[in-house]
Design a protein that fits this description.
This protein is an alpha/beta fold and 155 residues long. It is 32% helix and 16% strand. It has a 5-stranded parallel sheet with strand order 2-1-5-6-7, sandwiched between helices.
Length: 155
């Protein structure tokens, strides 16, 4: 799957609140540090993990399921096996009629879930990480020695 930089940049610019499904409390797990990073960048991150439900993680209450989240979200970021994605997307589409984006993390792809979301007018990104894309598109990866192709006057 290929996505234009403009498409990904537009998603990241318009998104304010993200439900991270499958987030871990273990600080060395990718789901934790991606959620933490997104929170540090100004996104509100709502953690979703049935094993942690009711606890506080990254300053927010953890919910067992997307159906339990009381607030609206713009994006659902999914850290689950590909085969587990369709019911998550179905629940998210039911819970949030105005959901804008379903984002599946690196290694996560599901054509049926993508088609379900796209049929409702929801943007879908598969097999990508919003943290990496944010860093790449907004010039942060250059500090790590990566050539982003973005010219910036930042020091």
């Amino acid at each position: 799957m290929t996505y234009s930089d403009n498409f990904l940049r537009a998603i990241l610019r318009r998104t304010k609140t993200i439900a991270v499904v499958g987030v871990s409390a273990n600080q060395v797990r990718p789901s934790y540090y991606v959620a933490r990073y997104l929170g540090l960048k100004g996104f509100r991150v709502i953690p979703v993990n049935p094993g942690l439900a009711g606890q506080t993680l990254l300053g927010e209450t953890v919910y067992a399921d997307v159906a339990d989240v009381p607030d609206d979200v713009d994006m659902v970021d999914i850290f689950r096996r590909s085969e587990a994605v369709p019911p998550i997307v179905a629940a998210a589409l039911t819970r949030w009629p105005n959901l804008q984006t379903v984002w599946m993390q690196i290694g996560v792809e599901n054509a049926d879930a993508a088609a379900m979301a796209e049929a409702r007018g929801v943007d879908v990104v598969q097999n990508r990480c919003p943290k990496i894309e944010y860093q790449r598109l907004f010039g942060e990866l250059r500090m790590g020695g990566f050539n982003t192709g973005i010219i910036s006057s930042k020091l």
